[in-house]
Amino acid sequence: MAERLTLDILTPQRRVLSTETPWVTVPGSEGELGILPEHIPLVTTVDSGILAYEREGQRRRAAVHYGYAQVQGDTVTVLAEMVELAEEVDLERARNAAQRAREMLRQLSAEKEAESQRMDVYEAKLKRALVRQQLAE
What we know:
- The protein has one helix and eight strands, in the order ββββββββα.
- The chain is α+β, with helices and mostly antiparallel strands and 137 residues long.
- It folds into two domains: 5-88, ATP Synthase, domain 1 (Sandwich), CATH 2.60.15; 90-137.
- A hairpin with a 2-residue loop joins strand 6 and strand 7.
- The radius of gyration is 25 Å and the shape is elongated.
């Protein structure tokens, strides 16, 4: 029985990681997927989330953003749009980006509500005009 997996993480721009590990957890689109040696072969979609693995006796993590994972034999290959290792993340920049995204979502939500109200007004006007036409005919 194999005791280790080979984990390869790639993006279109680079090979992010190639290491051996006793286990891997992947943020699948349907939930977290735990992989141990001798796992059944599979291909699954990867959601945006935290991929975890063990290296040199320590738990390591990477942010993965959308892609695919394949388990074949004792090799786990993750192909993702974007991957960031913990040491590559600028925490302050990430916090600022989250704040900007929240503000934009609030603004878009308000615009959507205003647009929805305008739609209601014009749907009512159309209904009145159609009723008037029906009455006049």
